[in-house]
Design brief:
Layout: E1 4-11, H1 27-31, H2 33-47, E2 52-55, H3 64-70, H4 105-114, E3 118-121, H5 136-150, E4 159-160, H6 175-183, E5 188-189, H7 209-221, H8 232-235, E6 242-243, E7 248-249, H9 261-277, E8 281-286, H10 295-316, E9 319-321, H11 323-335
Parallel strand pairs: 1-2, 1-8, 1-9, 2-3, 4-5, 5-6, 7-8
Helix pairs in contact: 2-10, 5-6, 9-10
Length: 336
Amino acid sequence: MNGHFVISLDYEIHWGVFDKKTVDEYKVNLENVGKVIDRLLEMSDKYGVKLTFSTVGFLFAENKTELLKQLPEDKPTYLIENFSPYPLLDAIGENEDEDPFHYALSGIKQIKNNGNHEIGTHTFCHFYCHEHGQTVEQFDADIEAAVRIAKPLDIAIESIVFPRNMIDANKAIDQPYLDVCYKHGIKSFRGKEKAYIYNIHTTKFYHGWYLFKILRLLDTYINVTGSNTYKVEELNRNNKVYNLPSSRLMRAYSSKLKFLEPLKVRRIKKAMTHAAKHNEMFHLWWHPHNFGAQMDENFKNLEAIFKTYKKLNESYGFQSETMTGLSNKIKLSYQK
Ligand SMILES: [Zn+2]
């Protein structure tokens, strides 16, 4: 297999940050998500790039009546109740016109109609698999709802991004969550980077946690952990649900550190080039709301990356794929 370029976007609007920020506290970013989607589709068309929109199930509802009808009976019972978005449902608007922070059916249809991209799931309610109090049965009910709400739009859910990346691909304790995914027809998920500073358990407290944070920030600009690219067909030989691990979070443009922005883009381009030359996968991800402020600067960076993709595609046959597109290719490679 040649190298592949995968982009997954955690499409969530306020449902991805409800436990950290109110709409007002993050308004510019959130209110521009629709425009970000427009520009992502336009730029991807121009450079032949395929995107995977890992979408929160709540966003599919046409209105509140429909959303309430789709809710699973068995909801997550987190010990810290703030992690549940369900109490927020009382306060949201009736539909997308009234409340574009909590509904996105028009955006989902726009992506679907474009035809080049994938719509996967980011769970129904932004479910936290590593938080205390939730159960795998509740996760099962959540994924069932996510699959069900997409069906009338003729969208088959076949890939998943776990909220806050709460999945440890190789830990036995997380296997039941992947089994649930498999049961519902999900073929792949985005695992964490292989480098140790990314690969720690999400909810545990670590001595040195701040050191990891600093190292991650440094790694954005200079090479601390290598390219984090993968031979996905070797990685998944024994897996039922394929792990397509992250290579890099594309951080939002930073005005404070703007002198470092060229380094950030260069770091991504170098890892992509490594993947292309060694027939590996480079998996880039971010949230559309990350691009909501300073949109022009963010898209300028993205265009530089897409131009590099185009060159690598011509020189090395490096190919853009959706998560499911790549999963299908991996599966085929095992049948040869
Ligand atoms: Zn999220």
